[in-house]
Write a structure and sequence with these properties.
Layout lengths: L1 H22 L2 H17 L3 H9 L1
Helix pairs in contact: 1-2
């Protein structure tokens, strides 16, 4: 369970970086990345909690 949770978290983190990189130009993405990491810390991805509760 722990390895799957870790891999899913890495995938969500990479997807967030890619979406920010393509949705915004580079200068603004440099400012948005720290806030997006903070939001990911406050609100973890829903699939992670689903996997934890189902195992």
């Amino acid at each position: 369970m722990g390895i799957g949770h870790w891999a899913l978290g890495i995938g969500h983190w990479a997807l967030g970086i890619v979406s920010v990189y393509f949705l915004f130009p580079l200068p603004s993405s440099l400012f948005l990345l720290p806030s997006s990491f903070f939001l990911l810390y406050l609100f973890p991805p829903v699939p992670n909690s689903v996997i934890i509760s189902s195992t």
